[in-house]
Design brief:
The chain is of the alpha/beta class. The protein has one domain (6-257): Phosphoenolpyruvate-binding domains (TIM Barrel, Alpha-Beta Barrel). It is 49% helix and 14% strand. It has helices at 6-15, 30-37, 55-67, 81-89, 103-113, 128-132, 136-146, 156-160, 162-166, 178-185, 196-211, 223-231, 242-257, and strands at residues 20-25, 43-47, 72-75, 94-97, 148-153, 173-176, 215-218, 236-238. Strands 1-2-3-4-5-6-7-8 form an eight-stranded parallel β-barrel, surrounded by eight helices. α2 (30-37) runs parallel beside α3 (55-67) and α4 packs parallel to α5.
Length: 258
Amino acid sequence: MTDPNIVSDLAKRLGAGETLFMGWCGIADPLSAEIIAREGFDACLLDMQHGAIDTSVAISGISILAAAGKPALVRIPVGDFAAASRMLDAGAAAIVAPMINSIADAQHFAAFTKYPPLGERSWGPYRTLPMTGLSAPAYLADANAMHLSIAMIETRAALDALDDILAVPGIDGVLIGPSDLSITLSKGASIDPGSSLVDAELDRIVARSQAHQKLPCIFCADGPRAKALAARGFRLLSIGTDQTLLRGAAKAALAAAR
């Protein structure tokens, strides 16, 4: 059951041990995220890195998802940690940061997403406060636990620094980008998110995340893959993207008609 404070719902449910499935949305209209959210997904991610979503669409999408009763995650562009703070102020439940490859990257990310003493986030939660229903002092006390900071692991350097990244105060979990990971592990020879090279790393990532009491998360291209990886310990998993779901449904409907 979702919490009336939709901003804290994601962190509370994951903290209680639930495994959650999210939509992954890159179409430049937040209505696509709303449609997915209302189909029973636990949350939706708004993709500012590779999707067509800009700042205004992301801010609108956060509010639209909240109205649908679902928390929003936002994947920021590479290194755009100022955007992370803006999305948190707008009510995002979590920020996903791509290409976190070192302890320094992780510390810089956490500095923008957590208030002191964990970070240096600037005060200005103009939309988050009414969404949470909290007073300013109560929000300040709860914000660091309420908003999740999730670092993407996508490169050999990130794999080598995994324990250092997980140990950074203010990093709440890691999210595996299997396509980029497959490219780097094959030295650019192939893109195969289900490859044996990627698969060989997954159990270690889950184990190290659990050892640090952090969340292991992953992008999955479809439902069967999400089900299989949830069984292996991943706690927050995507199921495709809005574009792939739309294309798949369109293709299936056309094939049935013909």
